[in-house]
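Researcher: I'd like a candidate sequence for this fold, 129 residues long. If you have to choose between options at a position, lean toward the conservative one.
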C-alpha cells in the first residue's frame, strides 16, 4: 500500500508462492527504514519468526518502531478527529476525487508496461474482460 503494488507478484499464482518462499523484497528508495523493517518482519515466510505470530502477538506489531507515534488507546476509543471530513451531497458523490478521462485497454496496458517494469505482471489482469 505504501508504493502502489504488492510485495510479491507474478503472472501465475505458483510464481507468487515461489517469490514468497524466497523472501526477496525490494523497496523504492523513498520508503522509511522503519517501514521496511516492519514489512520484512510481517512477511517472513517462516511463521515461527514472523512479527505478530510470536509470543507477544499483536502487541509486538503495535510496539514496532514504525508505530512509535500511534496512540492505540485513542484509536480504540475513537477519540481521533479526522484532518478532513468530506461532505457528501448524495451517495456516490465523487466531488473530492480528481476526474480522469477513461483509458482504453491498450492505453492502460501501455501505461502499466512503462511503470517501473511491473506492467507485464499486472497486464494479465485484463485477460477475460
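Model: Candidate sequence:
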Amino acid at each position: 500500500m505504501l508504493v502502489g503494488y504488492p510485495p510479491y507478484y507474478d503472472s501465475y499464482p505458483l510464481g507468487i508462492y515461489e517469490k514468497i518462499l524466497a523472501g526477496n523484497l525490494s523497496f523504492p528508495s523513498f520508503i522509511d527504514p522503519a517501514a521496511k523493517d516492519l514489512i520484512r518482519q510481517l512477511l517472513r515466510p517462516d511463521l515461527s519468526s514472523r512479527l505478530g505470530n510470536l509470543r507477544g502477538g499483536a502487541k509486538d506489531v503495535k510496539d514496532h518502531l514504525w508505530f512509535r507515534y500511534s496512540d492505540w488507546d485513542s484509536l480504540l476509543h475513537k477519540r481521533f478527529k479526522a484532518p478532513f471530513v468530506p461532505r457528501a451531497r448524495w451517495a456516490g458523490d465523487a466531488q473530492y476525487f480528481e476526474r480522469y478521462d477513461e483509458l482504453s485497454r491498450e492505453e492502460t496496458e501501455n501505461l502499466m508496461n512503462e511503470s517501473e517494469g511491473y506492467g507485464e505482471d499486472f497486464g494479465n489482469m485484463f485477460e477475460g474482460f
